[in-house]
Amino acid sequence: DTDEFILPTGANKTRGRFELAFFTIGGCCMTGAAFGALNGLRLGLKETQNMAWSKPRNVQILNMVTRQGALWANTLGSLALLYSAFGVIIEKTRGAEDDLNTIAAGTLTGMLYKSTG
Fold first, then answer.
1. C-alpha span between 48 and 62 (Å, rounded)
2. How many helices, marked H, and strands, marked E, lie in the chain?
3. Which residue among 6, 22, 92, 109 is least enclosed by CB atoms within 10 Å?
4. How does DSSP classify residue 96?
5. Membrane-crossing residues (predicted)?
6. Residue 23 CA: distances (Å) to CA of 15, 20, 30, 78, 84
7. Environment class of 80 (CB within 10 Å of its CB; exposed 0-12, middle 13-18, buried 19+)
8. Of the candidates 26, 32, 34, 56, which has an alpha carbon nearest to the alpha carbon of residue 44?
9. CB count, 10 Å around CB of 24?
10. Spatial separation of the C-alpha atoms in residues 18 and 12, rounded to whole Å
11. Where are the domains positioned within the chain?
């Protein structure tokens, strides 16, 4: 019933914020691509509903799927990158790993993302 992992001396059993950043960024990119593709399919079908099923309609739908997929993947990936970078920087600066780092990273990400508006 005990863990049978071999860990280097002094290593902890949990992943740090920096190691989790890669999973977060990749997961957000994949989620954004999937959501964007579904949204592009919905928009493509809506915009081409008056067209008969043909190659031009299929191409237009495919263009919408790829355009929306890339747009959403880029947006969510960028947000995840900002959030992860702020989280790692705050953790290294404070020397503590707690919920305050998460709140500060999320706040700074939102402020920077919306600062252009």
1. 11
2. 3, 0
3. 6
4. -
5. 20-41, 71-90
6. 11, 5, 10, 14, 10
7. buried
8. 56
9. 17
10. 14
11. 17-116
Amino acid making up residue 36: G
Token pair 């707690």: residue: 98
Averaged confidence pLDDT in the chain: 88
| Distance (Å) of CA 50 to CA 22, 47, 55, 57 | 44, 8, 14, 10
Cβ within 8 Å of residue 108, ≥6 positions away: 82, 86
Cβ-defined contacts of 95-99 (< 8 Å, 24+):
97/16, 97/17
Per-residue pLDDT of 40-53, as tens digits, reads 999 999 998 888 88
Residue range 57-93, pLDDT digits in tens: 999 999 999 999 999 999 999 999 999 999 999 999 9
Residue 68's pLDDT is what? Answer: 95
The 8-class DSSP code of residue 16 comes to -
Q: Is the pTM of this model over 0.90?
A: no
Spatial separation of the C-alpha atoms in residues 59 and 37, rounded to whole Å: 14
